[in-house]
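User: Round two. Same drill as before: sequence, then structure, for each protein.

Assistant: Same drill it is. First protein:
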Amino acid sequence: MRNWKFAMASTIVGSALMLGACGSTDTGQETSSGEAGVEGTVSGDGSSTVAPIMEGIVEEYAGVQPGVQVTVGTSGTGGGFEKFIQGETDFSNASRPIKEEEAASLEEAGIEYTEFQLAYDGLSVVVSQENDWVEDLSVEDLKKLWVEDGSTKKWSDINPEWPDEEVVFYAPGTDSGTFDYFNEVILEEEDLVSSATLSEDDNTLVQGIQADPNAIGFFGYAYYVANQDTLKVVSIDGVEPNNETIESGEYAPLSRPLFTYANNASLTDNEAAYDFMTYTLENAGAMADAVGYVALPQEGYDEGLTELEALK
């Protein structure tokens, strides 16, 4: 397996990726699921947080099954579910559980699906390395900073010893599951500060925060890991995100699971989709570790494979 943390630091996932060979199939190759020489197309969309895991899996899968073309977009968890509901994709990546209204829309559309958990993430609050005053924030500090209250937010509002400088905010776009999760557990459904720069592309957020010592933002842990030379992670109530605190849940309330949702009809009718999802579940743990997320215990992937096999 290539060094995915290094690869992410160079070029993390763009707005979409399309990996997979269109040439001739080597019928002697097999996936670990035992399917030789599979051919076809598979499409997915969704969370940019989940994208680093999927980017690595898709690229390595292309070497195993060159006859399968897999395309994955990154329009955000909500945007991905919109396409999934329309029947445009075989799977949808999500950094939050599916919402009741999304599940209802899928039922109305006659689409049955299966949820597969891929990894754990610790939603990371970050500032520039040039910021030499912020080391730790409480959940209440985060809410004071990020909730729109009509005021101009300054660092000195949190601590009078900090600079009397306006805070510059960067946040995932409103279609992002990361936005939804932060909104639920930190903002408690109040409005996000209106001055924030929003983007579905986490790389845009990374670059903005890197360039401004007064900036603050949040995104998935893997994006911090890939850019830790130029970003500083902020501990929350004294707990810094790392593999141990994320897996244990000590990094609360910002630890969360990452998912992909698969269309059951695609899994049963499209051999390529079934084979790709099998490969995904067999390799998600190693890839999560490689890109900077936290793998599930092996039994989590075994349960997913059992659910998948029951659909065949």
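Second protein:
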Amino acid sequence: MSVHPLCPPSAPSDPDGALARLADHYRSMPPVAAMDIRIEGYDGHCLRLSAPLARHVNDKGCAFGGSLASMMTLASWGVVSLHLERAGLKADVFVADSQIGYLAPLFADLAVEAEAAPGANWETFIATLRNRGRARIAIVAHARLPEGGSATEFAARYVAIAKP
């Protein structure tokens, strides 16, 4: 894994309600609701989430590694789900596998960004799901340090299985 550039800033504009539906879905899961996750932006490619450090602090005063892993998993799941919704497809989305690297402690609120991995193609993913009823895509995510760079990097494959 390597540090990738930060997602461009974007306001959480939500004209079709997709981000509100995603936020509702996150809140519908009790463990996720307890994380106090907020959707900070989505530009059609990159989803940005945040959560207060106070909800995720460990015994060293920095962000708990499990919280960082969970937030990157949720952001990655969310970006896949948003692309499926935009394509008008209903599918169950699962994380197939993931790899995480902890690069530096994070002593600030959690800010996570997720997007398709370099070389991954949303059009191919959507077409494969339509044709085969199942598709997978590589996603990358990271937790930003306030001074720039990444505290944590995440790479995963997500699988979508079409609903009948």
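The chain has one domain: 18-162.

User: Perfect.
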